[in-house]
Amino acid sequence: MLKLLNTGWIAHKYGKRRWIHYALAAIFLFVFGFAIANFLTIPAMLNSGADTALAGWTFLSFACLSMLTLIYSIWLSYTDEAHGTYAEVAERYRTHGW
Q: Are residues 62 and 70 in contact, defined by beta-carbon separation less than 8 angstroms?
């Protein structure tokens, strides 16, 4: 996941299709948050008095993070297809390394 922060490397390596990696990360975040929320509801299944608010907030936070990542990937898709932004980012990565 930390490789996603290095947008220059991703633009250099994958070019115009770099948005796919961000979309896959968004799907992973959503599924991971869903799995954690389901894991946190196990005590509520075993004990009828247990609270499930933590599971709900956990899923909501992962879903919001997933939504933001998905919006960013859609924005990258648009800018790369319409304006060719990936070429500038990749060139900056090749010359400066960041």
A: no
